[in-house]
């Protein structure tokens, strides 16, 4: 995988820290402290925080600072439900419209997903996973749908990344990808839609369980201290 830019490295780490609860909802993020934590200059910190604001994970308040957004599991579930419908629609249209070149690209992304899943590389798998869904969005032939799905994916990115750390999730995600791809290549629009929708909805369950587990461990550690 190509070298990850410094701002992306910081963003990924901050996403994990926020979702895992190391930075609490409503907590102020101090750029100077983050510089020390990540061993980098102010520029990648600023770029990472701006990206996280676009995704909705933090709020930058003029003359006040940057604060972690307060967003509950139920609110996230609602967004994942909408994402599931958009992904299902894209897969359905893709099954009807995909061309040979896009099928080859879809297969390439599946092979990349398999490599990262085998290596146990969750971050590498996430980016290959994004490429897989990106091919479907582009090949569905509906630019408005692609833009709407992209905006929501960006907002959900930290949570979609994190659920890949659930034990055995990458292997199961890969199997779900294969089911989606097989249906698309076969031109089975209904099967492609159902497989894509289910693939997103299962992430709600995976993420919710992960958050509950991490918060329980965090609270237990705090009580013990």
Return the string of H and E elements. Answer: HEHHEEHHHHHH
Distance between the termini: 40 Å
The proportion of residues in beta strands is under 5%
Question: What class, by secondary structure content?
Answer: mainly alpha
pLDDT < 50 runs, ≥5 residues: none
Please give the number of β-strands. Answer: 3
Percent helix among the residues? Answer: over 70%
> What's the gyration radius in Å?
18 Å
Largest sheet composition: 3 strands, antiparallel
Reading side by side through the largest sheet, how are the strands ordered? 1-3-2
Q: Kindly report the average pLDDT value.
A: 87
Question: How many DSSP helices?
Answer: 9
Shape category: elongated
Describe, in plain words, how this protein is organized in 3D.
With 225 residues, this protein is mostly helical. It is built from 9 helices and 3 strands; from the N terminus they run αβααββαααααα. It has helices at 6-20, 31-38, 42-55, 73-97, 100-119, 122-139, 143-162, 169-186, 189-224, and strands spanning 28-29, 58-61, 65-68. It has a 3-stranded antiparallel sheet with strand order 1-3-2. β2 (58-61) and β3 (65-68) form a beta hairpin. α4 packs antiparallel against α9.
Summarize the SSE layout with pairings.
Elements: H1 6-20, E1 28-29, H2 31-38, H3 42-55, E2 58-61, E3 65-68, H4 73-97, H5 100-119, H6 122-139, H7 143-162, H8 169-186, H9 189-224
Antiparallel strand pairs: 1-3, 2-3
């Amino acid at each position: 995988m190509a070298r990850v830019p410094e701002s992306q490295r910081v963003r990924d780490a901050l996403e994990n820290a926020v979702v895992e609860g190391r930075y609490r909802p409503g907590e102020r993020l101090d750029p100077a402290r983050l510089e020390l934590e990540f061993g980098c200059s102010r520029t990648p910190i600023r770029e990472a925080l701006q990206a996280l604001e676009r995704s909705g994970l933090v709020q930058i308040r003029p003359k006040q600072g940057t604060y972690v957004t307060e967003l509950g599991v139920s609110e996230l579930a609602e967004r994942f439900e909408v994402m599931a419908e958009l992904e299902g629609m894209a897969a359905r249209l893709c099954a009807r419209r995909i061309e040979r070149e896009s099928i080859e690209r879809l297969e390439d992304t599946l092979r990349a997903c398999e490599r990262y899943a085998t290596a146990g590389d969750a971050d590498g798998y996430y980016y290959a996973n994004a490429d897989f869904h990106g091919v479907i969005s582009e090949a569905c032939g509906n630019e408005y749908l692609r833009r709407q799905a992209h905006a929501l994916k960006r907002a959900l990115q930290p949570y979609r990344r994190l659920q890949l750390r659930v034990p055995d999730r990458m292997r199961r995600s890969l199997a779900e990808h294969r089911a989606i791809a097989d249906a698309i290549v076969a031109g089975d629009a209904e099967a492609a839609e159902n497989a894509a929708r289910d693939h997103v909805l299962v992430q709600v369950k995976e993420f919710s369980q992960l958050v509950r587990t991490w918060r329980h461990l965090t609270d237990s550690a705090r009580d013990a201290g």
